[in-house]
UniProtKB/TrEMBL annotation:
<protein>
    <submittedName>
        <fullName>Transcriptional regulator</fullName>
    </submittedName>
</protein>
<feature type="transmembrane region" description="Helical">
    <location>
        <begin position="161"/>
        <end position="181"/>
    </location>
</feature>
<dbReference type="InterPro" id="IPR001867">
    <property type="entry name" value="OmpR/PhoB-type_DNA-bd"/>
</dbReference>
<dbReference type="GO" id="GO:0006355">
    <property type="term" value="P:regulation of DNA-templated transcription"/>
</dbReference>
<dbReference type="Pfam" id="PF00486">
    <property type="entry name" value="Trans_reg_C"/>
</dbReference>
<keyword id="KW-1133">Transmembrane helix</keyword>
<keyword id="KW-0812">Transmembrane</keyword>
<keyword id="KW-0238">DNA-binding</keyword>
<keyword id="KW-0472">Membrane</keyword>
<dbReference type="InterPro" id="IPR016032">
    <property type="entry name" value="Sig_transdc_resp-reg_C-effctor"/>
</dbReference>
<feature type="DNA-binding region" description="OmpR/PhoB-type">
    <location>
        <begin position="2"/>
        <end position="101"/>
    </location>
</feature>
<dbReference type="InterPro" id="IPR036388">
    <property type="entry name" value="WH-like_DNA-bd_sf"/>
</dbReference>
<feature type="domain" description="OmpR/PhoB-type">
    <location>
        <begin position="2"/>
        <end position="101"/>
    </location>
</feature>
<dbReference type="GO" id="GO:0003677">
    <property type="term" value="F:DNA binding"/>
</dbReference>
<dbReference type="GO" id="GO:0000160">
    <property type="term" value="P:phosphorelay signal transduction system"/>
</dbReference>
Length: 182
């Protein structure tokens, strides 16, 4: 059971992080998509039955074949972002799927941390990257009116969601209260 799979020339799938990346691009995968790709990599060039994928990825949760089909479609789109990928996911009608690879997968060995590289382009199919605030011993406590207006407009635009969430919480509390005490 490996953590990193080399999918092509300098294209690596990190199964723990659920990312496919090169020196220039990163594509984040959903957890189920990453689990499916890991299963396909572990058994490359062998047919994996749909039932086995359902069992190992979704467990006892009942899902339709559409969920698996959508996940495979997402994986194909994610792999298509990289020109250097030397493998492809093949559908075996009425049976399952197979990851066709020219060479057996080898684990990309890293000791503690991956080698440092500069990310030039980030592509993600499911999540977007945002700037994280940095902690600094000398925090700037000056507030500009533009920043306050930006935050206020965000709250104003999303206040409906906040109200709905609060109403759901209150309704849940009262339901629980009546179930326990009455």
């Amino acid at each position: 059971m490996e953590r990193n799979y080399v999918l092509g020339q300098q294209v690596i799938f990190d199964s723990l992080k659920g990312e496919i990346f090169t020196d220039e691009k990163i594509v984040g995968l959903g957890s189920r998509d990453a689990a499916i790709l890991k299963l396909l990599c572990e058994k490359s060039n062998h047919v994996i039955l749909k039932e086995e994928i359902h069992e190992k990825v979704w467990g006892k949760v009942l899902v339709s074949d559409t969920s698996l089909t959508k996940a495979i479609s997402n994986l194909r789109k994610s792999l298509a972002v990289f020109e250097e990928v030397s493998c492809e996911i093949k559908t075996i009608p009425k049976e399952g799927y197979m990851l066709i690879a020219d060479e057996p997968f080898t684990d990309a060995l890293w000791l503690d941390t991956p080698p440092a590289f500069e990310i030039k382009n980030v592509v993600s199919s499911e999540r977007t990257l945002i700037d994280r605030p940095t902690l600094n011993s000398k925090m700037n406590h000056e507030f500009s009116s533009e920043a306050i207006n930006e935050n206020y407009s965000f709250l104003k635009e999303n206040s409906g969601y906040l109200i709905v969430a609060m109403l759901v919480l209150i309704a849940s509390f009262f339901t629980l209260f009546f179930m326990v005490f009455l």
